[in-house]
Amino acid sequence: MMLYSLTQVTQQYNERVVLDIDHLEIESGRIYALLGPNGAGKTTLLNILGFLETPTTGRMVFRGQAVAASRAAMLHLRRQVVVVDQHPIMFSTTVSNNIEFGLKIRRMEKEARQRVVDEVLEMVGLRPFKSARAHELSGGETQRLALARALALAPSVLLCDEPTASVDAENQAVISVLLQQINAARGTTIIFTTHDRLQAAALAQDTLVLENGRLAATTYENSYACSLLSGGNGCLRCSLHGRVAIPFATPPSADQLKRSGRVYIDPEKITLSRTDDLHANEGVMGTIVLIMAEGEKIRAVVNIGVLMVVLMDRASYQHQRPAIGETMHLRFAPDAVTLLG
Q1: How much is the pLDDT for 145?
Q2: Which of 200, 312, 198 is nearest to 190 (CA)?
Q3: Where are the domains of the chain?
Q4: Which distant-in-sequence residues (6+ apart) come within 8 Å of 135 by Cβ?
Q5: Could you tell me whether strands 189-193 and 157-161 are parallel, antiparallel, or unpaired per DSSP bridges?
């Protein structure tokens, strides 16, 4: 079932357009990753989907009904969607009271409230902290409490802004598993923003990518900030985030040469090789950190100084048999690299 449908939706602040969505559809019951560089419009889109902001223009449909811009309509819809902030604010009282607050507003009876509190604390692994003071929790525990507080309201949609960005590695793994469990057990639609490509690849069923407020035509894989460098012998190299340079086969225009921008590298136009006879300008080396099946393709994530995705067909995978932890060469097809501006 289609949950959201956005058509010609824009958001503008002081004559600056920060979001411009031609068309976007989000299905019910799936997990979506919302990715893109800082300032791309991710939080703005999340706020619109959470009915916290009304778009400047455009049409928005939720569960088959057009969304009216009135305050009463927005308040009604907010009962079905919960936003979990990157830095959630807790009341300086107990963990239990923080969860109960929203249930009291919805006039749930005390006995029922206690059942819900126990259920969600069990789900997020915080049952022993029920009587603890919320402001004394660690960052990871606070983020899990924020999820528990959201789950207590039984939302249809859970919107998470960078849910693992400010927590340690252990809690990052716990929160990722929690999101999968919430989706599987309750059928909750989950949309989360992240800069972590590995998390997006492992957790999300669908990926949305924003570039300068617009949905990118390319996938999120292999979209980087870049600048062009002279590689000698008339060759150009593209420096990704200032960390690693790759060959740039297609001569850019004079205008493109004047500035830095973003670059997209087609993951299906990169090949892996164990040979070590590559010339300096033909490829780079990296260590494989993730391999997973994706339909008829095999996704390999390689650390070359930045994380880069390679999509292989199954025949190539069977031939190469790359392994996690192995160092391999990446070779780029002449048309693999595209400047986005």
Answers
A1: 95
A2: 200
A3: 2-215, 223-339
A4: 90, 92
A5: parallel
Q: Say if 2-215 and 223-339 have the same CATH topology.
A: no
With beta carbons less than 8 A apart as the criterion, state whether 159 and 129 touch: no
Q: Is 307:254 a contact under the CB 8 Å cutoff?
A: no
Residues 6+ positions from 44 with CB-CB distance below 8 Å: 11, 18, 19, 53, 213
Angle at 337 between CA 260 and CA 42, to 5 degrees: 60
Does the pLDDT at position 259 exceed 80?
no
- Euclidean distance between CA atoms 19 and 17, whole angstroms: 6
Give the integer Cα–Cα distance in Å for 19 and 46: 11
Instruction: Annotate 279-338 with three-state secondary structure.
Output: CCCCEEEEEEEEEEEECCEEEEEEECCCEEEEEEEHHHHHHHCCCCCCEEEEEECCCCEE
Task: List the CATH code of the domain at 223-339.
Answer: 2.40.50.100
Cα–Cα distances (Å) from 48 to 5, 81, 98, 212, in that order, read: 12, 11, 25, 17
Q: For 59-81, what is each residue's pLDDT tens digit? A: 999 999 999 888 888 888 999 99
The alpha carbon of residue 207 and the mean position of all alpha carbons in its chain are separated, in whole angstroms, by: 7
Residues 6+ apart with CB under 8 A from 277: none
Give the separation between CA 201 and CA 214, rounded to whole angstroms: 21
Distance between CA 173 and CA 185 in Å, rounded? 18
Are the C-beta atoms of residues 285 and 328 closer than 8 Å to each other? yes
DSSP 88: -
- Are 117 and 108 in contact by the 8 Å Cβ rule? The answer is no
Q: Tell me which DSSP letter residue 94 carries.
A: B
Residues 6+ apart with CB under 8 A from 313: 296, 297, 298
Q: What's this model's pTM, rounded to 2 decimal places? A: 0.70
pLDDT tens figures, 282-306: 678 999 998 888 767 888 999 999 9
Architecture of domain 2-215: 3-Layer(aba) Sandwich (3.40)
